[in-house]
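Hi there,

I know you've been waiting on this one. I reran it after we fixed the sequence typo, so this is the corrected version. Both the input and the resulting structure follow.
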Amino acid sequence: MRLDRRRFVSCVVCTAMGYVALGGEADAQSAPPGGGIARAVLDKTPFPGEAHMTLLVTADLEPGAVIARHTHPGVESVYVVKGGGVVRLEGRPDRSMTAGEGLIIPAGLPHLFENGTDATRIAITYVVEKDKPLVTSAPL
């Protein structure tokens, strides 16, 4: 089966971030290359309680990179450190974001991020259910 660009990017994202939130053993060293996106897990802790995990992650995007449409099993809090792009949230208007802006994405809401013409760095905090994949692809 031949993969088109959108499906390929989606596969890269899910492979790179699809590790289980419990351990978060996948990190920048074990994430596959490609897609113009580099991620690093900076810290993680079991909180709140034993059923959830909180992760602090950075994502560096090359110009024009796309984080394919996906969901998370918990809340995602995003802060644009530098650069910017467009966040597309299902059922909501597209939102342009630049450095210094933040956004909280509810659990299970399909979304994607299209980077602009400059390199972008995003700081992300996830509060997600343990033992579930951090990212699940959400086809169009």
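Quick highlight: The radius of gyration is 14 Å.

Best,
R. S.
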